[in-house]
Amino acid sequence: MPYEHAMMLAGILFFLGLAGVLIRRDAIFVLLSLEIMLNAAGFALVVAGAQWHAADGQAMFLFILAVAAAEVSIGLALVLWLFHWHRSVDIDRASSMRG
Amino acid sequence: MTFAFYLAGAIAIASTSLAITRLNAVHALLHLVVSFLSVALILLLLGAPFAAAFEVIIYAGAIMVLFAFVVMMLGPAQKAASEERRWLALRAWLGPALLAAVLVAELIYVVHAAPGKATQVAGITPHQIAVFLLGPYILGVELVSLVLLLGLVGAFHLAYQLGKRERSLRRGVQP
Amino acid sequence: MLQVLWLIPVLPLAGFLLLAVAGKRLDARVVSALGTGSVGLSTIASLLVGAAFISTPPAGFLYTQRLWTWFVVGNFAPAFGLSVDGLSLVMILVVGIVGFLILLYSIGFMAGDEGFSRFFAYMNLFVGSMLILLLADNLLFLYLGWEGVGLCSYLLIGFWYREADARKAAIKAFVVTRVGDAAFAVGLFMLAHTFGTLQIQEVAQKAAGTWAVGSLSAQAAAALLLGGAVGKSAQLPLQTWLPDAMAGPTPVSALIHAATMVTAGVYLIARMNALFLLAPQVRFIVALVGAVTLLVAGASALAQKDIKRVLAYSTMSQIGYMFLALGVGAWSAAIFHFMTHACFKALLFLSAGVVIQALDNEHDIFMMGGLRRVLPLAFWTFLIGAASLSALPIVTAGFYSKDMILLRVWASPEGGIWLWTAGLVGAFLTSLYAFRVVFVAFFGPVKRQVKSRPGLPMKIPLIVLSVFSIGAGFIELPRTLGHVTLFSDLVEKALPAARETIASLLTEGALQGIVSLASLIAVLAVGLYYLGPAASARRARSRAASAVERFWYSGWGFDWLYRNVFVKPFVNAARLDEADVIDLPYRGIARIMEWGRIALVLTQSGKVRWYVMGATIGAAIFLLVAVFA
Prior knowledge:
The complex is a heterotrimer of chains A (99), B (175) and C (629). Chain B has helices at residues 2-21, 25-45, 49-92, 94-113, 126-134, 138-171. Chain B is an all-alpha fold and 175 residues long. Among the domains of chain C are: 344-543, no CATH class; 544-578, no CATH class; 582-628, no CATH class. A two-stranded antiparallel sheet of chain C has the order 1-2. A two-stranded antiparallel ribbon of chain C has the order 3-4. The longest helix of chain C has 32 residues, at 164-195. The radius of gyration of chain C is 29 Å and the shape is globular. The chains are: A mainly alpha (99), B mainly alpha (175), C mainly alpha (629).
C-alpha cells in the first residue's frame, strides 16, 4: 500500500482547495474550496492512522468532519447575510475593515 | 488493489480541479461530490470503512446538499455575478496557481525523502473506533457535540435575524 | 492649652479642603459660615494659646510642637513643626482677628458673585498658609507657607479671571515675587549646606558660633533672605506688583496686600534677627531700602486717582517704615507698627470697598464727592483710618507706633539724623495723600449717586477695626506720655531689645512734637487746597498733569524701566524660537511613525482572500526555510 502516495494525494487535494480559495471571488466557491481543504486534511489523518495501524486517525477524522459540518452551516448563513447587505456574493465587497 | 488506488486518486484530482474552475455553482457541486466519492473509495482501500462511510454520508450527503440548498436560494444573482468575475479571475489565476504548485512540490519532496513502510493492509473495524471514541477520546466527542450545538444555534440565529429583516424590508418598514 | 497650637493652621486648611471639594454644591449661607467659622475658630485657638502663653509662660518663652518629620535625607531631616513665642503670637493674633473680620466683611461684599465659594476657599487657604509661615519652626516649613501665600495671592488677584487686567496683574505679582523667592531659596540652600539644618533656633545659634560679625557668608545669607523679603513686601526694587494687584477684590487687597502677606518679609527679617545681627552692612541696606521706599511710595500715592492705588502705595510706604525700623535695630517697634498698620490699613480698604460698591464700582476719587453726607459710616471709618495712618497725635494707634519707630531711628547708632529726616518727610507725605483722599472724596458737592448701601456683615468689621485703630496703640506708650511697655515686654522675649534710648525726655518730646506738627500742617495744607478758594478747579477730574505728577503717578517709572530692560529683550529672544525648533525632533519622530502607518495601512485591504494570500506566502517561505535550511 503506497502510503506516501496517499499522503501526496491528500496534499495535492489540499493545495487545490487553497488555490480555489485564493482564485474564486464567489463566496459559495470560497466555502466550497474550504471544504475541499478540510476534507483533504482529514484524509491525510486517516492515511496516517492506517499507516500506523491505529484508530486515532479515524477518530480525528470524525472530529474534523463534525467541525466542518458546523462551520459550513454557519458559513452559509453568513453568505446569506453577505447577499442581504451587498446584493451580491462577491466576498471582496465585504472589505469595510480596511484602512 | 494499487491500480484501484491510483485510478481513484486520479479521478479525485481531476474532479476537484474541475470543481474549482466551473462557472456554474451546481456543476462545481456535482464535481465535488464525485471527488468525495473517490476519496471514500480510497479510504475503503486503506482499510478504514468507518471513515469511508462517514465521508459519503456526511460530506457528500449532508454538506454538499446544504450547499445545494443555498445555491438554489441565491440562484440568479449568483449566476450573473460569477460570469463577469470570470474574466477577472483569469488574470489573477497565475499567482495562486503557482503558489499551490510550489507547496505541492515541497510536500512531495518531504514525503518522498522519508523512507516509507509498505505494510500489509489490515482493516480497522468500526467496533475498534467506537471503543476508542468512548474511551480515550470521550472528551473530544463531548466537545465536538458542543460545537455542533453551537453551529446549530448560530446558524439558526443568523437565519432568523435575516428573515426578520427581509420581511420588514418587504413590508416597507425600516428594520 | 498650648496643645491646641496645631489647630491654628489646620482649621483654615480644613475649611479650604471642604470648600474646594463641596463649595459649589453648598448654600451660600453654609459657605459663609464655613469660610468664616474656620478662621474664627482658629483665632479662638490663637487666643487660648496666647492666654496660656502669657499667664504661664513656658521655658525660654518658646513653645514647640513637632507634628511629624517631613523627610529624611542623610543628616537633613526637616519636620512639620510649629513653635510659638512672643513674636509669632502677636502676628497670629493679628492675622486671625483681622482675617476673621475681613472674611465677615466678604460675606456682604462678595454676595451674589458667581465665585463665592471659590473666594472663601482661597481665603482659607491663604490664612492657613500664612499661619504656617508664622508658626513654622524651621525655614523649609516657613518657605512652604511663603509659597502658599504667594499662590493664594496669585489666585485671589486673578479672582475675576475674566478681566484681562486681573489676569495680567496676577501674573505680574507672581513673577516679581518669584525673583525674591528665588533669592530666598538660594539663601536657604546656603544655610542648609553650611549648617546641615534649617531649624530656626539651631541656625541662629550655629550662625552666631560659626560666622563672625560682618563676615562675607553672613552678609550673603542675610542679603539673600532680604531679597525674598523685599519681593514679598513690595519694597524697592521689587515693588512694581503691588499697585496692579489692586485688580483683585477689595477684601483681598485688605487682607493680603495690606495686613498680612506683605508683612511676611518683615516677619522673616525679625525672625532671623540673629542672622541679621551678624551682617551690619545688610542691616544698613534694609534701613536704606525702607527709607527710600517710603519716600518713593509716598510721593507716588500723592499723584494717584484710584482710591485703591493710593492705599496700595500707602502700604508700600508704611512697610518701608517697618523695614527702616528693622534696619536700625528697632525690632519691636517694627512689629508694633505692623500691628497698628494691619488695623488701620484694613479699615481703610474695607471702607474704600464700601464706597466703591456703593458707587457701582467707581474707583476714581475725583468722580466721588460729598460722600460724608450720603455714606456716613464709610466717612467716619475712613476718617479714623486716615487719621491713624497719618499718625495724628495722641488719639490714634498709628501715632504711637510711628512715633516709636522714629524715636528709635533717631537714637540708634545705625540710624541718625538723615534716616530720621526721611521718616519725617514720609510722615508729612502720608498725611498729605491720606487727607487728600478724604477731602476730595468725602467733602464737596456730590458727584455720583449712591446705588447700594452696606449690610450688617460689612458694617460690623468696620466698627471693630475703627475701635482698634484708635485703641490698639494704648498698650505701648512712650516715656513722655506714661511709659507703658506691655507690647515690648511680650515681644522682646523673642526679639532683641532696642539698645539705646534717647537720654533726655525733653529731646524725646521735641522730636514727637515736630513729627506731630508736620502731620497736622499737612492736613491743614491739603484742606486749604481742596476745600478753600479755587478748590473746584483743583477737584476737577480732567486737570492737566505736570511732568512731576505724571512721573509720580507711574510709580517713578519702574514699570517702564523693567519693561525695557527685562521684558522686551526676553520676549524678543523668545520670538526667535517661535517655530519651536527644540520640538522638531519629536515632531519628526511622530511624522515618521505617520509615514510608517500610511505604508502599513496599504496591507490591510479588508479582503479575506488577500489575507489568505498573505498566510499562504508566509507558510511557503516558512516551509522553505524549515526544509532546506
